[in-house]
């Protein structure tokens, strides 16, 4: 914030935190008129992926530099690793009134809003089976073990495409990968009723066909979150990253709400098959909207966003390298490392990656327990009927959806206030796990009242949503140009943990007749994860 204010206000050279002022080489600076002309001509062309509000911000910044008589170095100095060249990187600090600080900015309408819509439909397709499984089991005579097997098939596919989806998103852009994923999981949803047709049953292939259909739904949806991470890293200013992730996850969690509300209504009115036809057919208009709105990949913008600066500034700098002979050498040297491939083993070699993996494992353990066992807990442990259990299950997800957006605004404002990224990521993530740990210990009390139990469960799940501004945002902090691959890698560990958690709860509850051991074990895991997070996490770029 202070760097941007200093640049725009034309203060002395010492005010700049990310660039150096070289008064000995002022003769190398482009004259005021030519510099302004270059920026205006480039901005007028509206290069793909460069947002209009960013062009205005860069133009104003350029004019301010001229009036102040300053020259900004083309390369930031890092003690650990050279950063990519960014002109006017201070603009990413979101000075008051800048476009990236406003929810109504282009990044919101072109990136966050369509991402939230895609994730909403993803979760609607996922959760509808949890409602349809009851009449389906009655019709086909499936015991509880088969029902659990069918529901777990989604996670088989979902886990399998986490890392692949992230790699493809980093290589081809999240726009194309999400578009393909939407088409894939929509077709798979439409095919599930066919897997239960008389012809398939006559061939004795009903169960394998159902498992394959649900696994295919998971395969398509598995690419969504890694691609989301790629899109946010490439197209959203660093100062708004946590907000963008939080609002995207609001759509993700809202899918649970919408799915749980609409699915019973559709099922009662039209039957269970209509659920899969309805949600599957939503994919066609969704894909059309996504491809029409979502921005195409732009290497210059993505590289600048990865360096923590203004994507427009980077694109403009590359455009005028030929016009500024004094800066071309340093620009070329600093840009030469862009696009270098980073392997999975390289990602796994650093402690910062393991900080995210450990937290992701524990987060998913808790998340999938809440998702799959909350209605059962309300019904079996607290004595609510099925209808009340379903309604009460909506409340924590509603709080989580709201909390996701609030977490992003909180984190971005803390960083804008001068707190380091590392401090904010550690603090937010610690709170997101310590508060649920305390709430789960209350839930493990066998004498807890129903009202207190619902409150504690809502608090546990709601505060967990702060993690979107913690470990999720940290993925693009440490690996901005491999954000999709990093998300896929860490989420693979998380999904495997979720599968194990859901299965373990069933055995523990059957063995002990109580959910208390589950809550106590999960609370202990939260505490261990917080310790690991604070020891290993960093908000600085690593890869």
Automatic annotation (TrEMBL):
Query: What GO terms are given for molecular function?
Result: phosphate transmembrane transporter activity
What is the membrane topology listed in the Swiss-Prot or TrEMBL record? Multi-pass membrane protein
Ranges for domain Major facilitator superfamily (MFS) profile come to 111-541
- Annotated transmembrane regions: 172-196, 245-268, 274-293, 352-374, 394-415, 427-445, 451-474, 486-509, 515-536
Q: Show the GO cellular component annotation of the record.
A: membrane; plastid
Q: Write out the entry's keywords from A to Z.
A: Membrane, Transmembrane, Transmembrane helix
- What InterPro entries does the entry give? MFS, MFS_dom, MFS_Na/Anion_cotransporter, MFS_trans_sf
According to its UniProt record, which protein family does this protein belong to?
A: Belongs to the major facilitator superfamily. Sodium/anion cotransporter (TC 2.A.1.14) family.
Question: What is the protein named?
Answer: Major facilitator superfamily (MFS) profile domain-containing protein
């Amino acid at each position: 914030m202070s760097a941007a204010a200093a640049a725009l206000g034309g203060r002395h050279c010492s005010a700049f935190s990310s660039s150096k002022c070289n008064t000995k080489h002022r003769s190398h600076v482009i004259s005021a008129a030519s510099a302004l002309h270059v920026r205006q001509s480039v901005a007028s062309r509206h290069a793909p992926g460069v947002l209009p509000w960013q062009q205005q911000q860069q133009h104003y910044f350029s004019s301010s530099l001229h009036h102040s008589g300053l020259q900004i170095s083309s390369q930031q100095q890092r003690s650990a690793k050279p950063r990519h060249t960014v002109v006017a990187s201070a603009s990413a600090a979101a000075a008051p009134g800048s476009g990236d600080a406003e929810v109504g900015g282009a990044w919101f309408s072109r990136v966050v809003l369509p991402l939230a819509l895609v994730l909403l439909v993803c979760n609607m397709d996922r959760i509808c089976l949890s409602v349809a499984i009851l009449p389906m089991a009655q019709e086909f005579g499936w015991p509880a073990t088969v029902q659990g097997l069918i529901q777990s098939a989604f996670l088989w596919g979902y886990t399998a495409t986490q890392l692949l989806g992230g790699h493809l998103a980093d290589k081809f852009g999240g726009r194309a990968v999400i578009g393909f994923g939407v088409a894939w999981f929509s077709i798979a949803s439409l095919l599930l009723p066919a897997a239960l047709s008389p012809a398939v049953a006559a061939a004795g292939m009903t169960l394998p066909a159902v498992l394959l259909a649900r696994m295919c739904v998971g395969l398509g949806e598995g690419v969504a979150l890694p691609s989301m991470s790629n899109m946010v890293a490439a197209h959203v200013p660093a100062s708004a990253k946590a907000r963008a992730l939080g609002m995207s996850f609001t759509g993700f969690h809202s899918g649970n709400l919408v799915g749980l509300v609409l699915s019973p209504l559709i099922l009662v009115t039209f039957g269970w098959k209509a659920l899969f036809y309805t949600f599957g057919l939503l994919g066609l208009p969704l894909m059309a909207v996504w491809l029409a709105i979502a921005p195409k990949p732009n290497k210059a913008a993505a590289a600048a966003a990865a360096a923590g600066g203004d994507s427009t500034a980077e694109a403009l700098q590359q455009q005028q390298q030929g016009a500024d002979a004094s800066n071309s050498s340093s620009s070329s040297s600093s840009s030469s490392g862009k696009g270098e491939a980073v392997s999975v083993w390289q990602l796994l070699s650093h402690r910062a990656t393991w900080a995210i993996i450990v937290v992701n494992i524990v987060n998913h353990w808790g998340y999938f327990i809440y998702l799959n066992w909350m209605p059962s807990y309300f019904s079996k442990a607290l004595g609510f009927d099925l209808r009340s259990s379903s309604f009460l299950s909506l409340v924590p997800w509603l709080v989580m959806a709201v909390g996701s957006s609030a977490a992003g605004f909180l984190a971005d404002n803390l960083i804008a206030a001068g707190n380091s990224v590392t401090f904010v990521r550690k603090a937010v993530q610690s709170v997101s796990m310590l508060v649920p740990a305390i709430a789960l210990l209350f839930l493990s009390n066998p004498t807890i009242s129903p009202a207190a139990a619902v409150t504690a469960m809502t608090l546990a799940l709601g505060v967990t949503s702060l993690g979107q501004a913690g470990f999720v945002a940290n993925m693009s902090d440490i690996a901005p140009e491999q954000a999709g691959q990093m998300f896929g890698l860490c989420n693979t560990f998380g999904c495997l943990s979720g599968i194990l958690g859901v299965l373990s709860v069933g055995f523990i509850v059957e063995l002990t007749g109580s959910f208390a051991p589950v809550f106590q074990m999960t609370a202990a895991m939260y505490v261990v994860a917080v310790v690991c997070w604070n020891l290993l996490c960093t908000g600085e770029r690593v890869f």
